[in-house]
Amino acid sequence: MSPATGELSSLIRKRVLSALPEGHGHPELQRYVQLMRDYPERAGKTLRGKMVVMAARAHQGDEEAALATAAGVELFQNWVLVHDDIEDDSERRRGRPALHRMVGTPIAINVGDALHVAMWRVLLALPSTTPGGLDREAVLHEFLWMIDRTAEGQHLDLSWVAAGRFDITEEDYLTMVTLKTAYYTVVCPLRLGAACASAPPSPSFESAGIELGAAFQIRDDVLNLTRGVSYGKEFAGDLYEGKRTLILAHLLAHAGSDERGELEEVLAKPREAKQPHEIERVLAAIERHGSLRYAQDIAERRARAGLEHLDEALDRLPGRAAARELESLLRSLAQRSV
Amino acid sequence: MSPATGELSSLIRKRVLSALPEGHGHPELQRYVQLMRDYPERAGKTLRGKMVVMAARAHQGDEEAALATAAGVELFQNWVLVHDDIEDDSERRRGRPALHRMVGTPIAINVGDALHVAMWRVLLALPSTTPGGLDREAVLHEFLWMIDRTAEGQHLDLSWVAAGRFDITEEDYLTMVTLKTAYYTVVCPLRLGAACASAPPSPSFESAGIELGAAFQIRDDVLNLTRGVSYGKEFAGDLYEGKRTLILAHLLAHAGSDERGELEEVLAKPREAKQPHEIERVLAAIERHGSLRYAQDIAERRARAGLEHLDEALDRLPGRAAARELESLLRSLAQRSV
Lengths: 338, 338
Description:
Two copies of one chain form a homodimer.
Chain A: H1 3-18, H2 27-41, H3 47-58, H4 63-87, E1 92-93, E2 96-97, H5 99-103, H6 105-124, H7 136-163, H8 170-195, H9 204-224, H10 237-241, H11 246-254, H12 257-268, H13 276-289, H14 291-315, H15 320-335
Antiparallel strand pairs in A: 1-2
Helix pairs in contact in A: 1-3, 1-4, 3-4, 3-8, 3-15, 4-6, 4-7, 4-8, 7-8, 8-9, 9-14, 9-15, 11-14, 14-15
């Protein structure tokens, strides 16, 4: 991470925190304010926020508006994580217990809603246009689009778990991660950068962003099942949560029917009923069938395709240095080396 | 209900439903779309939406913008109810099972989020101003204010239940219902009506709206413990959910210390552990101490104070007929005769 990029991260983080209330005279509401600040104060990578600012710079857009928009994207990420962690009953987030495990589901849902409205407050404070070139309506509509897609993807993911479906194909999985991850992680941040310059976004932002976003999510799934990687989440948490991943789709498509039956029996149990030795059996099967390697290869192929596809669009942008920085961020994001 | 008012209700309901997607080519997302429409399709009273339109008419504001804003308020009500029903683990809503009891908590949280963004989509589709006098920025900022207050009130309510606190005073309760109910039920709809005419809202809207909103919520609490009333929720559900109400505050302040101990023991149990005969004991104590009557009296006193306070402000509005209709709506709302 270059010093300039680290600085940008801390600038965005400051914006996020300054968009949230700092304190309250009422004791219970003081606690509420602290809970709103809890996830934002945990050190996230502000990847998506940085992407907005770099994309805005590459379009020679309004820097001030880009920082506010970046804060909006990070607030989006925070409220979505609070709700996702409940929906998946995740144990940990950014190296600490998930919010609902600290305060219970009811209070955590409400804190997520409060962060959601804090996001809109930041966006609605943008002027409708600026000499630097902001198009506020375009920013606001990109957020509507982004939240819709993410919620659709989340619904697919949750409904497969709820229905106990294991017949998820690679294509199903890719539809789901495109909606759930790729839009808010890559496509929308790139397009938001363009909106800060009132520039029409390159159509490649969508097609390439989908490839890169899928690569990012697949790498995330791989990391979750890779021992000894510290990335703030529980090792093999995806198996405990019963998440449908590309790894699992590959495994179940390649297991013999007896083995498949045994694996599904374990995976279908509620998380509390899953024993560590059962999860070890699933991990061993994943190893045996090369499913982790398979997923990793797909991620690499998609990342390459996305970057190639994007190269030309980035080459055309007026802010040369920022475009190169953006490309390097996208490269490391797709490889999860950030 | 006058025919004109019934018509207004159905106009608003149509607006709400037309703001939601109707279908989707993907089978799971078709289900998702249906779930988004589920609460809005259950016949609600659209009280708050009607209040917006009547207040806009009383200010001689933009009718078209008022209808869209009314739909926004109703969408707010719907997403809040989906999340509230999870937070309180309510059984029923508008005469049918609560959404999370039909589809599980994870999917219901996500559907609530999808309705939340549908609300913003309706509001952001408003033009910034209209010949009819709309001030869109004022509408948007009123929504930010409304959601913030409601979430604060909800936090108070939930944190008392989570902490097992029974030492809630009448003042605590009134702070909570002002935040949780009065703003979004009365104060904000009145001010939104003014914003549809770019008129500065009367300061009485806030002070009187708080009285009326509290009266509304107290009447709601009373109805919940009144046998044989059909209003879409479970009889005595508030006792099963352990909600802190004015009725309970009065009861616990007037019970002897032994009786208080017994009552708190029942009320503190998780809802599944509460036996019907135990709830009957609480109801008998409420009867004995006149707590329902006490709450009803407070509600009536607050409703009268609010209406008197508002009279003068309504008298000054240019749309005479609409102002009278609005007053009559507020009167029946405070008495829960609508």
